[in-house]
Amino acid sequence: MKLQILGTGCAKCNALTQATEQAAKALGLPYELEKVTDLKKIMSFGVMMTPALVVDGKVKVSGKVPSVDDIKKLLA
Amino acid sequence: MNSQLQPHVAATGPAVETLKQGLAVGPIAVAASKPGWRKYLLWGFAGLMVWWLIYRNLAPFAAWFTYSLCGLVKGSHLGAAVEFFMFESPKVLLLLTLIVFGVGIVRSFFTPERTRRILSGRRESVGNVLAALLGIVTPFCSCSAVPLFIGFVTTGVPLGVTFSFLVSAPMVNEVALVLLFGLFGWKVAGLYLITGLIIAIFSGWVIGRLRMEKHVEDWVYATKTGEAGLEEKLDWPARIRAGWDSVKDIVGRVWFYVLIGIAVGAGIHGYVPENFMASIMGKNAWWSVPLAVLLGVPMYSNAAGIIPIVQALLGKGAALGTVLAFMMSVIALSLPEAIILRKVLKPRLIATFFGVVALGIMLVGYLFNWIM
Questions:
Q1: Rounded to an integer, what distance in angstroms lies between the CA atom of residue B140 and that of residue B168?
Q2: Cα maximum dimension of chain A
Q3: Tell me, what DSSP letter sits at residue B215?
Q4: Nearest to A69 among B11, B219, B223 (CB)
Q5: Which of A73, B101, B163, B263 has its CA 20 to 30 A from that of B83?
Q6: How close does chain B come to A40, measured CA to CA in Å?
Q7: Which residues of chain A neighbour B147 with C-beta distances below 8 Å?
Q8: Chain B from 182 to 221: CB within 8 A of any A CB
Q9: CB B113 within 8 A of CB B227
Q10: Chain A touched by B112 (CB under 8 Å)
């Protein structure tokens, strides 16, 4: 599964990265995580609030850091 | 109120099971499980009662704490400062918690995507007014000002309309309004709301008239903005949870600054003589308004941090217009914001943006000093 974290490097972006990794590991999913910091690329997803989580090309979370449990539900 | 809501909305505990079920099955199941709703209402009501009781008894508590428990002398500088701090800090935090919770729920109805759809292709003037109004209720963080700016201007929102939103969103916010209401009454809060909106509308309109599109960095308009397709259907338990999340987020982030602000305010309250500010920040000092704006622009604080200072200044004879101008310029314009916006705006547009907004704030300052 391809996970992308969109954000220009704010504190919340790192929090979302960590929470997502925890969730993916807890589920035992094979995943590949990429941090997208380029603004043009971020905009191509249509995201206006960072950080955002993209799962297999689809925007799942924008503008907030959900709990690990909530991310698990999004990944499952 | 905190302790009342916590077991209900936090991610653990048995009560959450009903909430999660509600989330999973949607509104129909919620309507069917009436007892769950009754529990919500009951807890909400009990929480409000406790909140109200604490709120009502803060003044006697602060007096008791200062003069009986600490044994300070009534009328002393230290006594006045301590009493001020013990009264204001729980009061401001209580107000903040309640309002941020309510606004968190309201904001779950508005997303930047929806706001953008409403504003896209609007003519100016109507667009400026709408953008300023939507700025109040749309969730906004200055950290995502840049993606928001690009998302707006590349999908048909006029530049001036975008600026109306960017001015109104940070300046006219619930934290500022509620604190003003709590500390100075509805008149000051209302004046702030109306003049804040007018400044946002006016600055956006002026920037639109100046045709400054060519002063946006060239790559911005070449950017292809995608469609996120993130449509969340929320039911009420989820909205309540959103409200609680924003309390944890916002109050968790600003409480420390609120306390520092109130401590500074308490110092001014206890030690600075009455009417001390009248000479430097009073009505008759014409230069005080531009000076207040000049001092406020490079400073960066949120509304919660600045309002206790505002209160102390007002209490010591500073003029309302001067103080409001100071507050608006601190919240609406800041150096960090200019640096962030530099990514998408050329220096001339940033300078124009700051200049026009600062001018609007100064006019408001003079207006208040003149009416009051």
A1: 10
A2: 32
A3: G
A4: B11
A5: B101
A6: 6
A7: 39, 42-43, 47-50
A8: 219
A9: no
A10: yes
Q: Do B143 and A50 touch (CB under 8 A)?
A: yes
CB contact under 8 A, B144 and A67: no
The pLDDT of residue B229 is 66
Residue B136 has pLDDT above 90, yes or no: no
* Reported confidence tier of residue B12, pLDDT bands at 50, 70, 90: very low
Residue B18 burial (10 A CB sphere; 0-12, 13-18, 19+):
middle
- Local structure of B76: helix, strand or coil: coil
Torsional class of B75: left (φ above 0), alpha (ψ -120 to 50), beta (otherwise): left
Does A62 participate in catalysis according to the annotation?
no
- Can you give the pTM of this predicted structure? 0.78
Per the model's pLDDT, the better-predicted residue between B155 and A9 turns out to be B155
Chain A residues whose beta carbon lies within 8 Å of the beta carbon of residue B226? 43-46
Nearest CB to B151 within list A12, A43, A60: A43
Query: Domain map of chain B by residue range?
Result: 2-108, 112-224+269-371
| Residue B57 DSSP SS3 | coil
Helix or strand run (H / E) with residue B127: helix B126-137
Considering the four listed CATH numbers 2.40.128.50, 3.40.30.10, 3.30.450.40, 3.30.70.260, the one that applies to the domain covering A2-75 is 3.40.30.10
CB contacts of A19 in chain B (<8 Å) are none
- For residue B15, the model assigns a pLDDT of 40
Does the structure show a pLDDT above 60 at B27?
Answer: no
Q: Residue B34: is it exposed, middle or buried by C-beta count within 10 angstroms (0-12/13-18/19+)?
A: exposed
> Residue A34 is inside which H or E element, if any?
strand A32-36
Using a CB-CB cut-off of 8 Å, the residues of chain A touching B169 are none
Where in chain A are the domains? Answer: 2-75
End-to-end C-alpha distance for chain B, whole angstroms: 37
Quick check: is A10 catalytic? yes
The catalytically annotated residue of A1, A2, A9, A10 is: A10
- Complex ipTM, two decimals? 0.83
CA distances, A29 to each of A2, A57, B84 (Å) = 10, 17, 55
Query: Nearest CA to B303 among B129, B176, B168?
Result: B176
Q: Which helix (H) or strand (E) holds B361?
A: helix B347-371
Token reading at B205:
């309109």
Q: What is the rounded CA–CA span in Å between residue B259 and residue B93?
A: 9
Helix (H) or strand (E) holding A36: strand A32-36
| Largest separation between any pair of C-alpha atoms in chain B | 68
Min Cα distance B228 → chain A (Å) is 5
> What is the average pLDDT across A66-75?
87
